[in-house]
TrEMBL record:
Similarity comment text for this entry: Belongs to the NOTCH family.
A GO molecular-function annotation: calcium ion binding
Keyword annotations from UniProtKB, A to Z: Disulfide bond, EGF-like domain, Glycoprotein, Repeat, Signal
Disulphide connectivity of cysteines: 129-138, 167-176
Protein's name according to its UniProt entry: EGF-like domain-containing protein
GO biological process: Notch signaling pathway
Signal sequence bounds: none
Domain of life (superkingdom): Eukaryota
Domain EGF-like residue range list: 103-139, 141-177
InterPro entries in the record: EGF, EGF-like_Ca-bd_dom, EGF-type_Asp/Asn_hydroxyl_site, EGF_Ca-bd_CS, NOTCH1_EGF-like
Length: 178
């Protein structure tokens, strides 16, 4: 795994230098490993390397995915965090940025959902989820009932970002513990 990350960083550095000669560089987006946009691709082809994938991206390309295990390269006109799929092993997303682009506050776009707090990072953002939510954008409900929070024979019902206990046998309280 350490070798894979080192190889990826080396390739990314080489990619940044090489692609800079055509006025753009591509930045790996942390947090979007093993994810692929669901938007319609411009190209879907094999590439011999990360650099080859970047070079084939073309002028209309805003981002691309490269799978380091299969050598597949997918180019897109538009890439938004809301349009990502999950669990596509081996993929890494790279965004194209003009060399003169200053870092912008990605949190101004309100990408985090369900009351989450957004923290801007260079070229990206991180969401800190409120209780009951998980996922990159805090859009995945945590099933609190799996932790069996209801006591004394109470029945748990999961809801978006929360849960409720239906108490049995005269017990009361949020967790049927009174």
């Amino acid at each position: 795994m350490v070798s894979y990350i080192g190889d990826l960083l080396l390739l990314f550095t080489f990619l940044s230098i090489l692609v800079a000669s055509v006025s753009y560089y591509y930045e790996a987006v942390l947090g979007f490993e093993n994810k692929v946009p669901i938007s319609e691709p411009i190209h879907n082809r094999s590439a011999d390397s990360l650099v080859g994938c970047a070079m084939s991206c073309g002028s209309g390309c805003k981002c691309f995915n490269f799978n380091h295990h299969t050598g597949m390269c997918i180019s897109y006109q538009s890439c938004h965090a809301f349009n990502m799929t999950k669990n596509e092993f081996g993929w890494q997303l790279y965004y194209r940025l003009p060399l003169n682009t200053l870092d912008t506050d990605d949190c101004q776009k309100d990408p985090c959902l369900n009351g989450a707090t957004c923290t801007n990072t260079p070229g990206s953002f991180n969401c800190t989820c409120d209780a009951g939510w998980t996922g990159i954008l805090c859009n995945e409900d945590i099933n609190e009932c799996l932790a069996i929070p209801c006591q004394n024979g109470g029945t748990c019902s999961n809801s978006d970002g929360s849960f409720t206990c239906t108490c049995a046998g005269g017990f009361t309280g949020v967790r049927c513990n009174e």
